[in-house]
Every structure is written in structure tokens, then in C-alpha cells.
Amino acid sequence: MADKQGLNGAYYGPKIPPTQQYHRHGRGSGCGCCCLVTLLLKLIITVLTLIGLFILIVWLIFRPINKVKFHVTDVALTEFNYTNNNMLSYNLTFNVNIRNPNKKIGIYYNRVEAKAFYEDQRFGYRSLTPFYQGHKNTTVLNVVFTGTQPVTLQGEDLTQFNSEKTSGIYSIALELSLRVKFKLGKVKTAVFKPKVECDDLKIPLNGPYVAGSSKCKIKF
Fold first, then answer.
1. What does the pLDDT average to over 41-47?
2. What CA–CA distance (Å, rounded) separates 69 from 62?
3. Whole-angstrom Cα distance, residue 148 to residue 126?
């Protein structure tokens, strides 16, 4: 017989080849789709956390009791002359108080552009120096507009100008275009681009300014 077997039942025939293990391609370590789903879940949780933090910071800043406030406190108008060739000569200075009442939030003013308007026409422009405003801080901006600018006043606008020239009190608007970031601890928000509108300021020529309606509105 080809196969030999001992008295004790042991087998002395050819060696039995080892069992071969086959690896299916594309399975890897068994991660695949599971790893991708886990990664996506982590990414979604991270994004939702950042959005929640962002909303919290904005709420802390702009809730009514802690809202950043802008006020025009002083104005000096020494020249405001409109000629027949549609040129407006002006010399105008504003002081604007910015109050940050928040205890833990600072504000980076990365861009501050000041614009002056008369009858919805812009006649003055200034780019101011960027700055950082700390916690519970009041910053005063000094804005000076001076020069000559072409402005077209016709019909009711011209009538309004002549009436205000007679009274010596002009209705002028100030607008601040901002690029700001808010800082809470070491966290900084994305850039906001609000506009601050100080409308219908009654400014006397060569006279004291009464800051009666000097509160400004913030629009995002």
C-alpha cells in the first residue's frame, strides 16, 4: 500500500500541504467606507461646533444690553458753499464715539472708511487708520473732510440747499464702512462688513453743534 500507518494509528504518508489563505483585493484592513463615514461625521461635528461658537460670539456682542454703540459727539462746519458751476466747497470735522461695553470681547477694525453725504450725494471721503478696541473701551474717531467736490443739485435738492443756507443749518449724513473681526479669548471670528449710518445730522455753519439726534444705526 502507498499509505503506511503505524500500530498506533499515526500517519506516515506524504505531508499535508498547509491551508492557503486568500486576501481579497480592495478590502485592506477592513476600514474603507467605515473610515470615510467616521471622517465625515468628525468634519460635520467640527463645522457645527465652529458655527455654534460663531453664533454665540455674535449673540454676546449684539444682544441689546451689550451692543456696540456709535455716537456723533462733536461737529464743526466752517465752510459749505455751492457754486453755479456745480462745485461744493466744504470744511467739516466729526468726532465719533465708539463704545464697546463687552467685558470679554475685543474688536479689530481692519478697515474704516468715512463718507459724507448731502442730499444723498457723496461729497467727502476719508480712509482712517485701522485699530483694535479692547474690552469696555470707548474710542473716539476724528474725521476731517475738506476740499471741493462736483455735486449736482437741481429742483427740490437745490431749493433745500438754499433754504438751509438761509437758516445756516445743513442736513448732512455720515456713513462709516467697516471691516471688523471680534475676539473672544484667543478665538477670532470671520470678517464682518457692517455700515454705520448717522443720518440727518443738523449741523450749523460756524456755530455750536447740539448732539440731539446723534445716535447712529449699525447695518450688516
1. 90
2. 10
3. 14
